């Protein structure tokens, strides 16, 4: 089979013909992505018997569409009611929710959708061309390099803490400390578990996410009786299609921003075990560093919403590259896809592109088609979705509490996790009432255990010598970039002040 | 003594000290839990825990300094705390906690219906009870359909789920 432009065109048209699988999967993906606790991976597991019955190509298209849509769906409740559907959308409410509170929920959704779609399309196209090279990124990223990547994400705490540094640092380190609960990674010694067996594997992410964001938010909003003020409610009521178009225009005018933040997602997605949460935190931190208006971040700034959304959709293509090229799944969904492919007798890795190039390239084409169809189906819905913010908190708060508590139960099916989510809700409520940023706590909870795991691995390999962290050329380059990105905002600010003073 | 405008504006720092104190207490407990553990289990507590205690202590010293200057005040607001206990917000938080306790005995659907109705009545000043009862039941049944039937989540089963299960089968 000849792999040329005609082959790609035929594959694209063939996958467009599978719209009847893609469109329902998109809507299912939006639902599972939007409910905390549910994810594309566990939905595909539930529906695995059906995928075994389907033709292998249809089954893969179904899984791909569900996977992409769930990434996009996780951002919807994050923007409208401050509840990230997955950890990958944890950076989305930093600027998405303040926009919704200003009565600009429809615009925020449009920005989120367009940046996700452009980010997804772009990274899929880049993945198609650069697959063989990108697949090798995983080989070069060892524990030392991963420590620096984690520090990129954790340094976001400093950005979040910009308004009150000491409080931000307390919140961030408190989160890191909570993230350290559980058995240690080498000898499995229980640490800080308070005797709860359920905490031996560490603090589960979904109860922390649900508690810190959703439950504390539900307790907060009942004080005001509404998600926004009366004037803002009127703004939402008066909004028309031009708001969606405004969101589209804002995103397209920042096409370069979408491009480079989605590429961050693609590269991080290729690294096994890294994932969308790290990608979105790193993209947000980098976006803020190189912005001319870093002070606007956290107040409902469009670029602060574009960065995490473009990055976490860039991860989708990245996660599939190791599976397709090397036969190594880059994440949970990719692992399930591998199971389906093996069950159907389809090879993974290099043999896939030799024996079944239609399927190998078809997976990425299905992703491309999914993002195109999402633009047609979901973008027009932003106007109606944004009306969620008009619902009275009398009805909304109990719904948030009940369904997010159930969401925290779903991943491990322990009632303990519901209590844990409630506990995090109380901590989040106290933090919000006393001026601490819950996002800083969450960054610590998500990235802390990963940082510790990679750091211990590196130290263990070097018999406890901390200089191992500066032993690899790639790691040292990353350290340099990290130091530069941390120092750059201050240097740029001083430079701007000097230029202004001269003029 | 009548309160002056300056006195009224004095910032109470009691609330702000809760998170740093929680952090310090938790770190002390964490360190206690790993005293005899190998170094691989301790390294994180040394790096993160020490920094948290250091930053929190700095914060508390800064606040103590402001307190000594009289620019802030430290007052545990017992009166406002007691009056806050009577607000719908506290009742809602308590109802949410009761939801967690009762879901294990009564099952997901019935507990969720009762939780929705009670919460909506508390937050909606007791208006339109029948309307809220219908809405609560519908929302709980949607939850049953999505979580238990569609995604086969093993949520606690009660009397209502058994009846619904028999009706469906």
Overview of this protein structure:
The complex is a heterodimer of chains A (503) and B (169). Chain A has 503 residues and is an all-alpha fold. Chain A has one domain. Chain A has helices at 5-16, 19-34, 40-46, 48-53, 56-73, 75-81, 93-101, 105-134, 137-140, 143-154, 156-160, 165-179, 205-224, 230-238, 241-253, 255-270, 276-289, 302-326, 332-343, 350-355, 357-377, 382-385, 393-409, 415-433, 438-461, 473-502. The model of chain A has no long low-confidence stretch (mean pLDDT 85). Chain B is mostly helical and 169 residues long. Chain B has 2 domains: 5-76; 83-168, no CATH class. Chain B is built from 8 helices and 2 strands. Chain B has helices at residues 5-9, 18-33, 39-69, 78-84, 88-106, 108-123, 129-150, 159-168, and strands at 11-12, 72-73. Chain B has a two-stranded parallel sheet with strand order 1-2. The longest helix of chain B has 31 residues, at 39-69. The chains are: A mainly alpha (503), B mainly alpha (169). At the A-B interface, helix 3, helix 12, helix 13, helix 23 and helix 24 of A face helix 2, helix 3, helix 5, helix 6 and helix 7 of B.
Features:
heterodimer, A: 503 residues, mainly alpha, 26 helices, B: 169 residues, two-stranded parallel ribbon, 2% strand
Number of domains of chain A: 1
> Would you tell me the overall average pLDDT of chain B?
85
Structural class of chain A: mainly alpha
| Protein chain pair with the most extensive contact, residues per chain | A-B, 65 and 59 residues
Straight-line distance between termini of chain A: 64 Å
Shape of chain A: globular
The computed structural class of chain B is mainly alpha
Q: Which consecutive residue ranges of chain A, at least 5 long each, have pLDDT under 50?
A: none
Largest sheet of chain B: 2 strands, parallel
- Trace the largest sheet of chain B across and list its strands: 1-2
Report the count of strand segments of chain A.
0
Query: What's the total helix number of chain A?
Result: 26
Number of strands of chain B: 2
Cα shape of chain B: flat
